[in-house]
Amino acid sequence: MLWGAIGGGLTTTKTGACNSIGPDTEAQTSVDFLLGASIFLLAFIFVFAFIPGMFAPFQSNSDELTMTADRIAATLAENVLVQNGSGTVMPGILNRSCIDSFKAAMNDPVQNQQVRRTLGLNASISGLYDLEVVIEEQDVPTPIVINNGALPGTTNVGQSKRFVMVRDSGAAGIDRYPGRMAIMTVRVW
Questions:
Q1: In this structure, how many other beta carbons lie within 10 angstroms of the beta carbon of residue 37?
Q2: Measured between alpha carbons, how far apart are the two ends of the chain, in Å?
Q3: What pTM did the predictor assign?
């Protein structure tokens, strides 16, 4: 008899035929199953993680734009457009005279640069931001549009909306406290 190690198990040969001594003639099913399941899971995780990225645009900074739009909307609604005649700051209640002053400052070339610095529109890695603020008041047919550039057609735009109230301090009896409901939309590109 010839004893030898063939395929990891002991076998004996008699006249050219193999006879098994142990259970090693079958495949190692538990190891094979574990290896196959691991390869399948790795392939599935790879596809799940990387395929959606192929459908995204190659250059997208919309997260940066959305955060910038949100920061500017918060600054406008809580600080810049909210002071009343006595200097009291009322966050979320916009004053018509502050809106008009902001619109005039955005249209003036000298004040525009100061407003841009205050709002952080010049602090981009990719360059200067453009800004559009639209205030749509309840029961008023035409919105207030403060635009510092035409809306682009093919680039990313970050947008943030705030529900605010608009008071017209110069018109007696038109606006009751706290004012008219409005939606302030800030777009940055």
A1: 10
A2: 85
A3: 0.62
